[in-house]
Specification:
FAD/NAD(P)-binding domain; globular; 5-stranded parallel β-sheet; alpha/beta; binds 1,4-dihydronicotinamide adenine dinucleotide; 31% helix; Enolase-like, domain 1
C-alpha cells in the first residue's frame, strides 16, 4: 500500500462521469477486469432508470394492472370491486422496490474495487474530471451523464404542467389528464392514469401513437386504447397551455381546447451535456448529443460516451450494454460492436408492446422485397385465458432470416427474449419452427408465427 499515491494524485484506468445504467455497468465490468475505476455521481447511484424511470414507472404500471384485475374480476367469476386507489400506498410499494434495488446496487459497487466519488463532476480536460477540490485523472474517461425530460419552447414545467419526474410522485390522482406526446412515456403514463380511473387524452403531433414501432402495432394500440376509453388525438399540433388553481387548459391548432387537472409533457428526453466541459475538451456534439463511433469512442482519444447522451435508442439496457462494452474495449478484449436494431424494445402500457429488429417499412427501405406474417393471439390459448388481444408480426427476407419481430398484447413484453435471439442469430423461420414452445404459454404464439412462415401453420388461419 505504501506505493499507492494519495487519491488526490492518483491516475485511474477509467474515470466515469455518471452513475446510471451506463456508468455503473462500466464501473462494475472494469473492476471485474482488474482496472482501477473512479465513478462520479452527483445524485443517486442507479440514475434515471432506478430512481425516476424504468423501475418506479413499471411499479406504477403493475399497480395499474392490479387495479384493472380488480375492476374486471367479475368477468372471470371473481366478484371484486375496485373501491379506491390509495396513492400513498402505491408510492410506498413503488419506493420499497426502488429502495431495495438501490441498496443492492450500492452493495455491489462498494464491494467491487471501485472508488465511488459523490459530487458534481466537470470535465476539465480530456483526461481529468474535477469534483469539488479533487481532480480525478483517468487514462480513459467515460461520459455517462444521461438525459432529462424535455419540454417544448414556451411550455414551462410547474404546477399542473409536469413531466414524468413529477408525475411519478403525485400526491393526488387527477380525474382528467392530457398527455402531450404519444411516444413511450406518453402511452405508459396514459395507461397508468386510465387504469387508476382518470379520463385520459393523448395529443400526438405525428399521425400515430408509438410512431417508432411498426405501423400495425400503432393501429393495434390505438384500437386497444379506444376500448379502454383513452382518447388519442394524433396528427394534431399543440399550441399552448394555461393553468390556474382549478385546471389546465390545453389548446390545439384545430381550435379545440381540452380542460384537465394535469398536463403531462412527454415529448422526448434531451442529453445532459450542457456546461460540463465536453465541448471544450474537443468532444463533438450534435444537438447536444455526443457523437461516437460504433466503439463508443468520441472524437477525442481516450474519451468514450455511453447511454442516453449518445444518439440512438434511449434505453437503460442499451446504456448498460454500452458501459460493459467500453470496459471491455479499454481492457483490450475487442468486444463486438452493438447492433442497435438488435436491442429489444418493450413499452409497458396495456396492452404491452415488444419488438426487435426492423419494422416492415424499415425492412422494405433497407432490403427491398420482404414478406410478413401476422399471427393473431386469438389462436393462442394462454392469451385467450388472459382475455387479451394482439398479435405477433414477423418480417423476413425472401427465403432468408427474420429481420423484425413485433408483438402486442398483455404480457407480450416477456416474449422479447426469444424474439431477440431470433433476430440476433439471424434465424430462419424453419429453424425456429423446429423448436418446441411450452403449452399453454403466450410464447407459443412466437412458435406458431414461425411455423406459419415456414409453411406449416397449425393454430393459425393462413
Ligand atoms: P419519445 O421520443 O418516445 O416520444 C415523444 C413523442 O412526443 C413523439 O411521438 C413526438 O412526435 C411527440 N411530440 C414531440 N413534440 C410534440 C408536440 N409539440 N406536440 C405533440 N407531440 C409531440 O419520447 P418519450 O416518450 O418522452 O420518452 C423518452 C425516451 O425514454 C424514449 O427514447 C423512450 O424510448 C425512453 N423510455 C423508454 C421506456 C421503455 O423502454 N419502456 C419507458 C419510458 C421511456
Amino acid at each position: 500500500m505504501a506505493d499507492t499515491p494519495p487519491d488526490a494524485e492518483r491516475t485511474y484506468d477509467i474515470v466515469i462521469l455518471g452513475g446510471g445504467s451506463g456508468g455503473y455497468s462500466c464501473a462494475l465490468r472494469a473492476a471485474q477486469l482488474g482496472l482501477s475505476v473512479a465513478l462520479v455521481e452527483k445524485d443517486k447511484l442507479g440514475g434515471t432508470c432506478l430512481h425516476r424511470g424504468c423501475i418506479p414507472t413499471k411499479a406504477l404500471l403493475h399497480a395499474a394492472e392490479v387495479a384493472d384485475s380488480a375492476r374486471t374480476g367479475a368477468k372471470f367469476g371473481v366478484n371484486a370491486t375496485l373501491d379506491s386507489i390509495d396513492l400513498a400506498t402505491v408510492h410506498s410499494y413503488k419506493d420499497g422496490v426502488v429502495g431495495r434495488l438501490y441498496k443492492g446496487l450500492q452493495g455491489l459497487v462498494s464491494s467491487a474495487t471501485i472508488e465511488y466519488v459523490e459530487g458534481h463532476g466537470q470535465l476539465t480536460s480530456p483526461s481529468t474530471v474535477q469534483v469539488g477540490d479533487r481532480t480525478l485523472t483517468g487514462k480513459n474517461v467515460v461520459l455517462a451523464t444521461g438525459s432529462y425530460a424535455r419540454t417544448i419552447p414556451g411550455l414551462e414545467i410547474g404546477g399542473r404542467i409536469m413531466t414524468s419526474d413529477q408525475a411519478m410522485t403525485l400526491a393526488e390522482l387527477p380525474e382528467r389528464v392530457v398527455v402531450l406526446g404519444g411516444g413511450v412515456i406518453g402511452v405508459e403514463f396514459a395507461s397508468v392514469f386510465a387504469s387508476f380511473g382518470a379520463q385520459v387524452t393523448v395529443v400526438e403531433a405525428l399521425p400515430r401513437l408509438v410512431a417508432a414501432e411498426d405501423e400495425a402495432v400503432s393501429k393495434a394500440l390505438e384500437r386497444a386504447f379506444k376500448k379502454r376509453k383513452i382518447t388519442a388525438k394524433t396528427g394534431v399540433k399543440f399550441t399552448g397551455a394555461t393553468q390556474d388553481e382549478t385546471s389546465v387548459q390545453v389548446t390545439l391548432e384545430s381550435g379545440d381546447t381540452i380542460e384537465a387537472d394535469l398536463l403531462l409533457v412527454a415529448v422526448g428526453r434531451g442529453p445532459v451535456t450542457d456546461g460540463l466541459g465536453f465541448k471544450e475538451a474537443g468532444v463533438s456534439l450534435d444537438r447536444g448529443f455526443v457523437t461516437t463511433d460504433e466503439r463508443c469512442r468520441t472524437a477525442v482519444e481516450g474519451l468514450y460516451a455511453v447511454g442516453d447522451i449518445v444518439p440512438g435508442l434511449q434505453l437503460a439496457h442499451r446504456g448498460f450494454a454500452q458501459g460493459v462494452f467500453v470496459a471491455e474495449q479499454i481492457a483490450g478484449l475487442e468486444p463486438t460492436p452493438i447492433d442497435e436494431a438488435g436491442i429489444p424494445r418493450v413499452t409497458y402500457c396495456d396492452p404491452e408492446i415488444a419488438s426487435v429488429g426492423l419494422t416492415e417499412a424499415q425492412a422494405r427501405d433497407k432490403h427491398g422485397e420482404v414478406s410478413t406474417y401476422e399471427y393473431n393471439l386469438g389462436g393462442n390459448g394462454k392469451s385467450q385465458i388472459l382475455g387479451t388481444a394482439g398479435f405477433v408480426k414477423l418480417v423476413r427476407l425472401p427465403d432468408g432470416p427474420v429481420v423484425g419481430v413485433h408483438m402486442v398484447g398483455a404480457r407480450m413484453g416477456e416474449q422479447v427474449g426469444e424474439a431477440q435471439l431470433i433476430y440476433n442469430w439471424e434465424a430462419l423461420p424453419d429453424e425456429v419452427a423446429q423448436l418446441i414452445h411450452a403449452h399453454p404459454t403466450q410464447n407459443e404464439a412466437l412458435g406458431e408465427a414461425h411455423l406459419a412462415l415456414a409453411g406449416k401453420p397449425l393454430h393459425a388461419h393462413a
